[in-house]
Write a sequence for this structure.
C-alpha cells in the first residue's frame, strides 16, 4: 500500500467514501493529516469531490481542486510527492 501511494504518514488516504461511515472516516483522515478543524475538513472533502488525497493537498498547499489533482498526477499519486512538487514549483 505504501509503494502504491495509498498512505500518507500512517494514514490510509486513498479512500472512496461511498457511504456515511466512510465519509466520516475520510473527514477524520483529513483532520489527522492536516490538523484542520472538522468544519474545514468537511468543506475540503466536498470541494475535492470526496477525495481525501485531493483534500489534503488542497489544504496543505492552498491550491484549487484542479491544481491539487494536477500535483497528485505529477507526484505519481503520492500526497507527499505532490506537496514536494508544489514546493519546487513555488520557488
Amino acid at each position: 500500500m505504501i509503494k502504491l501511494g495509498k498512505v500518507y504518514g500512517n494514514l490510509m488516504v486513498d479512500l472512496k467514501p461511498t457511504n456515511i461511515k466512510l465519509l466520516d472516516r475520510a473527514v477524520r483522515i483529513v483532520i489527522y493529516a492536516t490538523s484542520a478543524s472538522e468544519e474545514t475538513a468537511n468543506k475540503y472533502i466536498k470541494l475535492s469531490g470526496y477525495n481525501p488525497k485531493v483534500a489534503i493537498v488542497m489544504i496543505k498547499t492552498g491550491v484549487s481542486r484542479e491544481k491539487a489533482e494536477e500535483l497528485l498526477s505529477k507526484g505519481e499519486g503520492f500526497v507527499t510527492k505532490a506537496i514536494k512538487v508544489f514546493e519546487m514549483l513555488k520557488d
User: Anything to note?
Assistant: The helical segments are 20-34, 38-47, 52-61, 65-74, 79-90.
